[in-house]
Amino acid sequence: MLQEKLPVEIKVKKLSDGPEKVIYFPRVVGMTDSSFQRTINESIEHQVHQMIATQETNMSSPVEEMDGYFEIKNNQCQVLSLTQTNYTYHRHAAHGLTILRSLTFDLIEKRTCTLRDLFKPGSNYVKRLSDIVHQQIKTRDIPLIEEFDSIKPNQSYYLADKCLVLYFQVYELTAYVYGFPMFPISIYEVSDIIREDGPLGRLSENN
């Protein structure tokens, strides 16, 4: 059986400023549309530098260690979704701090997708997804540092196979020890409000 060709090929790039500061990030290569390929790579690199800047200015003390890496969460059905993580330790800090960011690209429509772009216009996706998160918090007995009200319209997310994963930063919902609160939602749980011609629609049809 021939292996299905992935929509994009990924190479690993490295950004380093000494042995204590090493950032690995993905670079897309081999696309027929070189213009959109450049747009994707510029978006990824821009996010890398934003994360570095955020971590460097997060505390007044100097940075002693910084490590960055990435994960390709989805590379099928003309949908590319990835996460980028940056861990930084500042001098005299009690512990390091990690931040997480993500990007999702629709390779057919040739654009970066926000959460809103995944759903039908006019659908109350914010309330629908917030209700699911509420239920997961209750079912999983997740200890919160403050009451959860609602996700943001542009809530952070990534796509992994047939799953939409909403996530929050460290300290945003829970204590540091719990890391990143993540809420996986099956595509089929929200199938009535997703855009059939969008990333979720294509992933739901891929068996």
Protein architecture, described:
- The protein contains three helices and nine strands, in the order ββαββββαβββα.
- It has helices at residues 34-56, 125-139, 199-205; strands at 9-16, 21-29, 63-76, 79-90, 97-106, 111-112, 157-160, 163-167, 182-186.
- The strands form two sheets. It has a six-stranded mixed sheet with strand order 1-2-3-4-5-6. A three-stranded antiparallel sheet has the order 7-8-9, with helices on one face.
- β3 and β4 form a beta hairpin.
- It starts with 8 loop residues before the first strand and ends with a helix.
- The model has no long low-confidence stretch (mean pLDDT 92).
* Secondary structure tally, helices: 3
Give the N-terminus to C-terminus distance in angstroms. 16 Å
Helical percentage:
10-25%
Derived structural class? alpha+beta
Low-confidence stretches: none
